[in-house]
Amino acid sequence: GVGSILRFLVAEGVQKLTGGVFPWGILAVNLIGCFAIGLLGSLLTGPWLVDEKYQAFILVGLLGGLTTFSSYAFQTIDLARGDDFVIALCNFLMSNFLGFVAVWIGLRLAQEMY
After folding, report:
1. pTM passes above 0.70
2. ∠ CA(110), CA(64), CA(100), 5° rounding?
3. DSSP label at 82?
4. What is the pLDDT of residue 71?
5. Cα–Cα distance for residue pair 67/30, rounded to 1 Å
6. I want to staple 114 with a disulfide (CB 3.0 to 4.6 A). Which of 30, 47, 75, 104 is the partner?
7. Distances (CA, A) of 104 to 16, 35, 36
8. For residues 50 and 44, is the Cβ–Cβ distance under 8 A?
9. Residue 46 DSSP label
């Protein structure tokens, strides 16, 4: 769907800009998705109180298609099986830590908005 198309465009664009072996495109998409789900998940169920079917469309459909955890996991394992274990470990640590930070920032921003 739309989220998957956005994932492809953003991931490819970021990867072309950064180059190299490290999967910056996937990391960027996951951080954007984590931030967005933190922000919108709070706003859509709180002050904006959007109907549940629209919440599901945005949070599950759009953002579910945008985030790429399965792609991230596959790519990280693939890096680890090759000669890029350090890059795989960095990707694992950064994606997990920064993903949680992005969700927290999104939640805090949403709280500041209402």
Report:
1. yes
2. 50
3. T
4. 83
5. 5
6. 47
7. 28, 8, 10
8. yes
9. T
Q: Residue 114: what pLDDT?
A: 85
* Rounded CA separation 102/99 (Å): 5
For the chain, give the number of residues: 114
Long-range contacts of 4-10 (CB under 8 A, 24+ apart): 4/65, 4/66, 5/65, 6/62, 6/65, 6/66, 7/65, 7/66, 7/67, 7/68, 10/66
Binned average pLDDT, 10 residues per bin, the chain of 114 residues: 96 97 96 94 91 93 89 91 94 96 96 91
CA angle 100, 21, 38 (to 5 degrees): 15
Q: Report pLDDT for 30.
A: 94
29: its two tokens: 């998409």
Residue owning tokens 């921003």: 109
Q: 27: which 2 tokens?
A: 């990391």
